[in-house]
Amino acid sequence: MTGTSITDINHFFIAGINYKKTDVSIRGKFAINPTQYNQVLEKAAADNKLKEIFILSTCNRTEIYGLANQGEDLINLLCSQTEGDIKTFKELAYIKRGAAAIEHLFAVGAGLDSQILGDYEIIGQLKQAVKFAKEKNFIGSFLERLINSVLQSSKCIKSNTDLSSGTVSVSFAAVQFLRNQVKDISTKKILLIGAGKIGRNTCKYLVGHSAASNVTMINRTDETAIEFTKSLNIDFAAYHDLHKEIDAADVILVSTNAETPVILKKDIKPGKHKILIDLSIPSNIDPSVKELNNVLLINVDELSKQKDETLQKREGEVPQAIAIIEQHMDDFMEWNEMRRHVPVLKAVKQKLLEMQDGDAYSFASSPVAADTVAIQKVINTMAVKLRQNNTKGCQYIEAINDYITLGTNS
Predict the structure, then answer these.
(1) Catalytic annotation, pick one of 59, 79, 156, 203
(2) Cα–Cα distance measured from residue 396 to residue 255, given in angstroms and rounded to the nearest whole number
(3) At CA 385, angle to CA 382 and CA 390, rounded to 5?
(4) 59 noted as active-site residue
(5) Can you say whether the dihedral through the CA atoms of 234, 238, 239, 244 is positive or negative?
(6) For residue 326, how many other CB atoms are within 10 A of its CB?
(7) pLDDT tops 50 at residue 365
(8) 3-class SS at 246?
């Protein structure tokens, strides 16, 4: 599956929706969990049309990238496994191709397209998405090189700019919200449901950046939560005690991969005031909970609207980040352009090897092609000239002449 006959850069597409045009409820319908991701790739393998693809699904976006004849092929594949329908997706989606699609991926990888500018968590999510597709043989040479270029660009931006300086992410925004909202957080019982990456990060920020001292974690798999809570010296509760812990908590943060809400309106008893923060896509807290008088419910879209000095500083780093992206994009484009010349280079090399084997030419007392190093030298020179100007036929003849000249001078 890793090979593909589609090598033209204009066959590279991205189709997706994100926070800019859709809210949490819509994004949740098109979110892709690991099971759905696997089903998408199985369908792609069965259809045998799309060879290089991957899906990036986070709280901010669902995007499918790949080599295809048209962007609609990617949309149809993605929506075949989502709760949302194709018609709705097309109405809200953006489709980019070629250089525009590549530029978009670079921007996503740098955190320039995130709800919270410079959010570096996207890199881990991108790596995981590509790893999953690679294990299913859907990452070929084109996407492999492109992703590596994006990762290198992102690393360079992080090292040479302050775009990701400070601590700002959805997880940190949740903790910052609590610091601003709760006067004496040290007296509040905080329950965190979900031990995934966002859940773990939120826990770390609670412990390291707030005065919270009564934190309990619950996870569907008890063992995962037990190991993590020991490392932070916080409390653990078994999943079968979920409802008891919900009743006792003053603050509840939810971040799981559940496809349906884990907290319903009926789970919240009247009386005690609670703050609920839903960090999940699709929603893990039933939106109707907001109707309760004793509940303040916040989701990721509302958290992302918070602005502070760190974000303002990051905005000033955007031009430098864009300049770094442009440099890495140029390098990738040059590599991709050279791929187009590979068949010609191989053909010339094969011809020169045939000349060597046939001992077709000799000068003085030595055959021309006795030196295979000379052949590679000619090919390398030809590659440089092909990159500088696209005259394959002329370069083919010139390479033969260069080789013969090398023979006469040996």
Answers:
(1) 59
(2) 60
(3) 110
(4) yes
(5) negative
(6) 13
(7) no
(8) helix
